[in-house]
TrEMBL record:
GO terms for cellular component: cytoplasm. It comes from Pedobacter quisquiliarum. Its main location: cytoplasm. It holds the Pfam family Abhydrolase_1. This is Homoserine O-acetyltransferase. Residues 41-323 form the AB hydrolase-1 domain.
Length: 352
């Protein structure tokens, strides 16, 4: 079992805004060993409230007997800036005050997340990545990384993400932040501040993660006589309470802001131009009925990355399908990597 490890950046981290995080730490997990050729690195970028222990939340795709296993691969998953799980975040101590940052934590972007993980990669001796993979917020990171360090990524796998966060997605995130801000305790400078608001925010988020069909299949009443205490109501409350036990409102607030910042065209020529310059072998996967990241967004990415493949996964679960439909994903990703390896061999023969 992999244990969480910590990397401390000697010079802190300078953010895209110009602000600096001193005493900057990254929490991460590794599985397996880096081989002599250093060509077996699988780097995972996690989603919004996930942690660095990818074996605990992407089972069926990552594990001892799964497609990505520690016997063959050196798997790295690092926790993002601002998250609750060990990387420097709003509950970390601000060296300037000796107290937690709370709402004085600087806003950061997807590019800042990537920059932090690139520092970790250097620390680990990782100079090239065989497979860079991520879904949702993780897909946004993986896409940015493939642009910021174009020649170091061999295979890029993007699931249920976009090239720039949409007005629709930003509106969902703002609605969640509005819910958090109505909880007065959010401004009280305490570790459990905003908990009631966070519970409501999670309830809102779930409606974007799942579908009408999914709720109909799992939360439908067995009796026609009920007038209250519905299963769907209990489910929303349960999921809200579940998040409260493992996360905090301040991290959630800043992470949703970082997601809103995602736009690969910012400061560059254009989104399509940037996509056209990606050199990695790319597989883009959309999830059927994804309300939050509609498949048109993945189709757009695949259309503009040279040679990219686009695949659709059928799922009644909507956005959460990228975490649930692991059997289908294993088949698609396995075939993609076999094709990529074949192309690499042919290219080597042609250039020999």
């Amino acid at each position: 079992m992999s244990e969480v490890q910590y990397f401390r950046a000697a010079n802190g981290l300078t953010l895209e805004s110009g602000k600096q995080l001193r005493n900057f730490n990254v929490a991460y997990h590794t599985y397996g060993k880096l081989n002599a050729k250093q060509d077996n690195v699988i780097w995972v970028c996690h989603a919004l409230t996930a942690n660095a222990d990818v074996f605990s939340w992407w089972t069926g795709l990552f594990g001892k007997k799964e497609l990505f296993n520690p016997e063959e691969h050196y798997i790295v998953c690092a926790n993002v800036i601002g998250s609750h799980y060990g990387t420097t975040n709003p509950l970390s101590i601000n060296p300037a005050t000796g107290n937690p940052y709370y709402l004085s934590f600087p806003e950061y972007t997807i590019r800042d997340m990537v920059k932090a993980h690139q520092l970790l990669a250097s620390h680990l001796g990782v100079t090239s990545i065989k497979v860079l993979i991520g879904g949702s917020l993780g897909g946004q990171q993986a896409l940015e990384w493939s642009i910021m360090a174009n020649k170091t990524i061999e295979n890029l796998i993007l699931l249920a993400c976009n090239a720039a966060h949409s007005p629709w997605g930003i509106a969902f995130n703002e609605s969640q932040r509005l819910a958090i801000s109505t909880d007065r305790s959010f401004y009280a400078q305490q570790k459990d501040g905003g908990s009631k608001g966070l519970k409501v925010a999670r309830s809102i988020a779930l409606l974007s993660y799942r579908t009408y069909e999914a709720y109909g299949a799992t939360q439908l009443e067995s009796s026609d006589e009920k007038t209250t205490d519905f299963r769907a109501s209990s489910y929303q409350n349960y999921q809200g309470e579940k998040l409260l036990k493992r996360f905090n409102a301040y991290s959630y607030w800043y992470l949703t802001k970082a997601m809103d910042s995602h736009n690969i065209g910012r400061g560059r020529q254009s989104i399509t131009k940037v996509l056209s310059e990606i050199q990695a072998n790319t597989l883009v996967i959309g999830i059927e009925n994804d309300v939050l990241f509609p498949t048109t967004e993945q189709e757009f990415i695949a259309k503009h990355i040279p040679g990219a493949q686009y695949k659709l996964v059928n799922s009644a679960y909507g956005h959460d399908g990228f975490l649930i439909e692991t059997q289908a994903l294993t088949g698609l990703i396995s075939n993609f990597l076999k094709e990529s390896a074949s192309k690499k061999i042919i290219k080597l023969i042609q250039t020999a």
